[in-house]
Amino acid sequence: MTEKLLGKQRVEVPYRNDIVGSFLRPEELKKARKQYENGEISREALKAVEDKAIRDLVKKEKSAGLKSVTDGEFRRSWWHLDFMWGIYGVEYKKVDRGYLFKGEETRAETAGLYGKVKFTGTHPFLEHYKFLKEVADEEGVEARQTIPAPAQLLLELQRPENIADVKFIYEDQEDLINDIAKTYNQIIKAFYDLGCRNIQLDDCTWGTFCDKSLIKLLGYTEEQVNETLNLFVRLNNLAIKDLPRDLRITTHVCRGNYHSTYASEGPYDPVAEILFAKENVDAFYLEYDDERSGGFEPLKYIPRDKQVVLGLVSSKIGKLEKKENIIRRIKEASEYLDIDQICLSPQCGFASTEEGNILTEEEQWKKIKFIKEIAEEIWA
What we know:
The protein is built from 13 helices and twelve strands. With 380 residues, the protein is of the alpha/beta class. Strand 11, helix 12 and strand 12 (342-346) form a beta-alpha-beta unit.
């Protein structure tokens, strides 16, 4: 590279070398979960294995130079459904078809409604966060909480299998929107009260609407797409309204991540002007690991006071990218953003579901190390 990129380090989330959240489940944890499902061990025994795995993970995250750590989503089966099932009014539901990915179909599960959505003062993830915070404090790093975005819950409830129940409970969709927003807002404040200062909203809704062929398949008109996108951003903004000033709210956008496959493709252009310009988050974690995500021009809509974490390193494959290619792409992105608005991470988590992507733990950590090396070279 003829012209060297030089930027400043950051002392708050997002960091120049960052992660999205999930990590490959260790074999001991996979074995224990299966034993629990088969009735061979108790819930307490499974929790003990989870606790140990999370302690070990946080040590590895810290050793890898990460300043903000997660529990790897080790207590979850899905990146999104487990959180939804923990909300009052939302229930586990078996369905006929799973989510369709490129060449694969997931387990056939969803989140349906059995009553009005509300926060009753408890949620399983609050206990999960308390444990992570204790471990992170011991290690001297920041504990991050990842949850599916409010729009993601709304989209789940719009699945054909859920529509009838939702309409029975909520005759007026606006009541549902307000209840989801209020519930999320209260849960986020509960995380804050536990010491959380970093909430990440994982949101595949936008990735879905980047895919023109998928939109056509769903039968949406251009007007319906625009209405839906504005509804999503309004819901997300309602949910994060009037939160404490020292709480960082970020969002991660991708096009699906299951067993190293994807669900949709297409550049950010169709959603950029609404998502980037209107969503009131502090930073965007964006999938950008291959041609499916398009170019960087849509980033021109991102305000100058927001950060963008470029997911240029794939979490779907074990092969390490070429450093010069990653640096070149960061330079291309800096045509639309200031270099100090940019951070670097994997394009998604390494295990958005418990199945995990097709790479080894060793390859996973090499990717994290690789990202740190590049970040230290650019943001001195």
